[in-house]
Amino acid sequence: MRTLFLVSGMLSVLTTLAQAKPPGMVWIPGGQFAMGCEQAGESFCSLSGANLTRDAQPVHQVKVDGFWMDRTEVTNQQFAQFVKATGYKTVAEIPPTAAEFPGVAAEMLVAGAAVFTPTSGRVDLKDNYQWWSYVKGANWRHPNGPASNLNGKQNYPVVQVTYVDARAYAKWAGKRLPTEAEWEFAARGGLKQKFFPWGNELQPGGKWMANIYQGDFPAHDVGRDGFTGLAPVAQFPPNGYGLYDLAGNAWEWCNDWYRPDYYQHSPAKNPPGPKDSYDPDEPGSQKRVQRGGSFLCSDQYCSRYMVGTRGKGEFKTATCHAGFRCVQSP
What is the pLDDT of residues 287-310, one digit of tens each? Predict the structure, then answer.
């Protein structure tokens, strides 16, 4: 009788969850996992050298509670609905002020965002300003500059959105941005300590599983995975939880402030991230964690499409390769 009661109770819980399922989201059951990436030289995480893993150590046990997560990154169509309903203007659509950037010439204080432009040939990869530039008029409607648009791209991830913009959308939608721990737990899809959301092979059976950069970075993306530049959502198989695009395509904002030393003293359950930001590479910049990598990730330069690695972004800076997805607590 007890067994029947327990089974009946489990079915009741599952039925309740199914009935309450938010549209476009999947249930992530929560649990314990090993968070982070191994030391450089001990795993595939060392592809781009020691700098790739220095802030993703030590690998540590973390437990997270269950939550709902968007099946895909938020799309242009979804973000447009938010803008239509609220009249919201993104950070990239508003000219920066002299108070924000003291000493900058007035003619330079124009609305815009960061855009990637391929170089004409091989360059020194230590200087990313050779392929990144601030472009006047670049924003979520014009992700690569004023001459670009969203025609036919309703199902692409919205990009050129800052952490501030992503949080505003999430609040409007009755959701929130994931913690870094929630994001990694979900991205692993139930697999234990694998390099990718689908396992340990970058191309299982010779098949590409994510939109990343193939070719001579940053000069020419040959698009062996089927795409050069950003791709529509859900073009590759989902992970074990039914989530798409957790490696490559567009970086995803997390709620956590970024600090490279946080894993050394992170709480073991539902870590919320540090109370402030510090990046020794840019001490004056306030950064939030980004996860998942983008279409610009390459084993020649940045292989942070690995599920245990970390990214970071200035919280009010928009780029053409960063978007987000939301979560919701039960």
Answer: 999 999 999 998 888 888 999 999
Q: Are 260 and 279 in contact (CB under 8 A)?
A: yes
Domain interval for residue 162 = 22-86+112-328
Hey, how many other C-beta atoms are within 10 angstroms of the C-beta on 264? 10
How far is residue 223's CA from residue 214's CA, in Å, rounded to a whole number? Answer: 6
First to last CA, the chain: 30
H/E element holding 17?
helix 2-19
pTM metric for this prediction: 0.91
CB of 313 within 8 A of CB of 322?
yes
Q: How many CB atoms lie within 10 A of CB 178?
A: 30
The answer to whether residue 48 is domain-embedded is yes
Q: At 133, list the tokens.
A: 């530039």
What is the DSSP track for 218-238?
Answer: TTEE--TTS-SS---SS-S--
Residue 326, amino acid:
C
The count of domains in the chain is 1
